[in-house]
Amino acid sequence: MPIPAILEGRLRIPAIGSPLFIISTPELVVAQCKAGVVGSFPSLNARPVSLLDEWLHQITEELAAWDRAHPESPSAPFAVNQIVHRTNDRLHDDLELCAKYKVRLIITSLGAYTEVNDAIHAYGGIVMHDVINNRFAHKAVEKGADGLIAVAAGAGGHAGTISPFALVQEIREWFDGPLALSGSIANGGAILAAQACGADIAYIGSAFIATTEATADERYKQMIADCGAEDIVYSNLFTGVHGNYLRPSITAAGLDPDKLPQSDPSAMSFKSGGDSEFKVWKDIWGCGQGIGAIDAVLPVAEMVDRFAREYDAAKARLAL
Which pTM does this prediction carry? Predict the structure, then answer.
């Protein structure tokens, strides 16, 4: 099964660092790409639009300089995440900037539209669209997506509820294009498992929050290192869409993680503890179930080194 051609020969391990809202900035993206995995960020992290222009220039120049200095180990490509939703009034401008810098890989979320995919294809880019079920996967490909990201149960943030084995199995019954898998992947063995069940590449988010280059609260990073799967709560209270969040961050906000009410799609913040306002992502921290494998905050290069060792060891075990 294929990986996107733009990634062939450019990855140390088959992995994409998923775009992390607020957290993914050029420092994290560049570190991931230099380490040999795809680095990505949501375009909306760069506010205002003019900052996106600056970020794309910075990332492009830094990776080009790295490639000139390290021809034996060129950087992995980077990706930009576009929120394809009617509420995103920046989409057109952000796509124009991606075209300006010829961003080769675009990750689309929350909406699949032919015109968006056509605009990306027009300058030579490819599109991978994230989906939580087989129905959405069909729609994305029908609208022109080149590849899919299966967001399965256990993934951080806005996750689905379907087992990764079931979701990949259903998609592979009809789709033979590039397929990434997200959901509790936080070590090299899980990366190999993603490939074994039919995906081409692993999609890793929560583990990269616990890195020195990530723009996250230090308490957030340490919480990931200290917590495990039982510390993840699945709720739609905070954004109106179900997602996975760290239990201690919910408790710190003055809420009972075991008695969270249902929410409506317009909820993006809430009040707790008098006049204190807690905002999603800033105070309530998204995270996936795989974090039991993360026990320390590390530089990206060291984390990728660890993933690579574990990946090779897992392959060796299977070869016995």
Answer: 0.92
